[in-house]
Specification:
The protein is of the alpha/beta class. The protein is about 45% helix and about 15% strand. The protein has eleven helices and eleven strands. The strands form two sheets. Strands 3-2-1-11-8-7-6-5-4 form a nine-stranded parallel beta sheet. Helix 1 packs parallel to helix 3 and helix 4 packs parallel to helix 5. The termini are close together.
């Protein structure tokens, strides 16, 4: 597949905390790591930054910021405050980006345009802080199946329209699982160019038994991950391939086996 490999910590979330993930990456000669904030907070940001640095790992992203839409002003303000903390954490880790899962409809709402407006307002509120910290906000479009509860940002085109509107300091995180189906994917990857801040790899299984928690190891499903990787490289992205598996099947495996399988699939 090419490129250096990175472990997104959610891939082994049931059995390893962040310290074990760092040690596992070093043991398996995996050069990158992308922590989720829950394991980061459990370990402590300063301790995590120190151990990651000592292990010689690159932080390919911090997961996640976003979740801006809320039913009231207090909820929206709380989301902005949490995102400002996430920016500080990403800066401390020297993360390549803060991955933004922008949020779905507020509970009880059917106002999709309103939720998208809240998303943009939230991004506008935190962008000056991100720019000052040198942290790229990587907008991650999610598959439309998640529009109601996780992300009203559904396509790469939507994400790039926001990048165009917001300007410097905003890019995209492209996850194969979420973008592979899009008939415009090739054109939009080319349009993204050097605004691609992260590339996430996992596969779509047939049949898929759970639309959130049944992602496949790269190579086990129907996505042309090698082809997508070639597209992002042609657009100018030379960064890591980050494996992010939300999968009950892989969570049940021993993490060392998961990392070894990741490496083997990455070489294919």
């Amino acid at each position: 597949m090419g490129s250096a490999l990175s472990l997104n910590t959610v891939t082994v979330k049931e059995k390893w905390g962040l310290a074990e993930c760092i040690e596992g990456c070093a043991r398996h000669a995996i050069e990158g790591i992308s922590p989720w904030r829950d394991v980061l907070h459990a370990m402590g940001v300063a301790a995590a930054a120190r151990q990651i640095r000592d292990a010689g790992l690159t932080v390919t992203g911090l997961c996640r910021g976003g979740m801006f839409p809320a039913p009231d002003a207090a909820g929206r303000a709380a989301a902005i405050e949490d995102n400002l903390r996430a920016i500080e954490e990403a800066h401390t880790l020297n993360a390549a980006c803060l991955v933004m899962v922008c949020g779905g409809l507020p509970p009880g709402s059917k106002d999709l345009p309103g939720a998208r407006a809240m998303m943009r307002e939230g991004l506008e509120a935190i962008l000056p802080t991100a720019r000052a910290a040198g942290v790229t906000l990587a907008l991650e479009p999610l598959h439309p199946m998640t529009c109601a509860d996780r992300s009203v940002l559904s396509t790469t085109a939507q994400a790039l329209d926001l990048c165009d509107a917001l300007g410097e300091g905003v890019g995209v995180a492209l996850d194969c699982y979420h973008i592979w189906w899009d008939p415009e994917v090739a054109a939009q990857i080319a349009r993204a160019g050097r605004r691609i801040a992260a590339f996430h790899a996992c596969d779509w299984l047939v049949p898929t038994t759970d639309l959130v928690l049944d992602r496949g190891m790269p190579g086990d499903g129907v996505i042309d991950i090698v082809g997508l990787r070639a597209m992002v490289e042609a657009a100018g992205y030379q960064g890591f391939t980050e494996v992010e598996l939300l999968s009950r099947r892989w969570w049940a495996e021993e993490p060392d086996h998961v990392l070894a399988t990741m490496k083997a699939s990455h070489r294919c």
